[in-house]
Write a structure and sequence with these properties.
Strand content: 25-35%
Structural class: alpha+beta
Distance between the termini: 16 Å
Mean pLDDT: 82
Oligomer: single chain
Radius of gyration: 28 Å
Number of strands: 11
Number of helices: 3
Order of helices and strands: EEHEEEEEEEHEHE
Strand order of the largest sheet: 4-6-7-10-8
Length: about 240
């Protein structure tokens, strides 16, 4: 005789058989799907706050960089800094894609008056390496831009600086420790993204993130729907029609 929970619906009898091993398997996937949904919700709120902070700070009047050096809240601060470009030490970050084209990000160290460290200025994107003999920068009193902290966990294959004895240095990512060793000068652990309307730059249409918050919300809804469908499928599998 069949055992389980019986119920009637529209003049028919049904039996729900509890299948422990299959239930535990479905429960495992249900929890996993819910956790993925919750993680996407966290990413949604994180990106929303990140974009709000960026928009607020980038549209404010630039502050004097040297007054913010010791601040623990440097991300996206809009600053003005006095000094001179070290044009001979300009570097390139390879494999930077813009509008479907692969190119380079141009990084030039900046000597700040009265400061021992160099500040890395991200001057924008170029399709091919510029002719640096024709791109030597005149002494500049000040530049303005937005401070961007670096992602320390970018995955790369092989050495970061491809040919340390060849100039300009070409690297896979901006690694301030490696750059300091190559230049024999300490650099700040972040870059300054040059303002879009500033001189001495290249293509600068800065994008804060490739995935906008709304997409994370969409992913979260998908994961939660999949969890709900899994549970519905499990209970549908367990239900059998019995009798007439």
């Amino acid at each position: 005789m069949a055992t389980g929970l019986q119920f009637g619906f529209r003049q028919h009898n049904y039996l729900v058989k509890f299948r422990l091993s299959f239930f535990l398997l479905c429960l495992l996937f249900f929890v996993l799907l819910c956790q993925l949904g919750v993680w996407q919700l966290h990413r949604y709120h994180f990106k929303k706050n990140l974009l709000a902070t960026y928009e607020q700070r980038v549209n404010t009047a630039p502050q004097v960089f040297t007054k913010l050096i010791d601040s623990k809240d440097l991300q996206f601060q809009h600053v003005v800094v006095n000094g001179t470009y070290q044009a001979a030490d300009t570097m390139l970050v390879q494999n930077r894609v813009r509008d479907g084209q692969v190119g380079f990000e141009v990084i030039t160290p900046f000597k700040i008056a009265g400061q021992p460290k160099l500040l890395l200025i991200d001057r924008g994107w170029v399709k091919s390496p510029p002719l640096f003999a024709q791109q030597l920068l005149a002494n500049i009193g000040s530049v303005t831009g937005v401070i961007k902290l670096l992602n320390e966990y970018q995955f790369i294959l092989g050495k970061n600086i491809l040919q340390p004895d060849v100039t300009p240095l070409v690297m896979q990512k901006i690694d301030t420790a490696a750059i300091s060793a190559a230049l024999h000068r300490e650099v700040y652990p972040f870059v300054l993204q040059l303002d879009s309307n500033a001189d001495q730059g290249f293509v600068r249409e800065w994008s804060l993130t490739n995935i906008h918050p709304e997409r994370h919300m969409g992913y979260a809804v998908q994961w939660f729907l999949m969890a709900a469908v899994l549970m519905i499928a499990y209970f549908s599998f367990c239900i059998e029609r019995v009798g007439r």
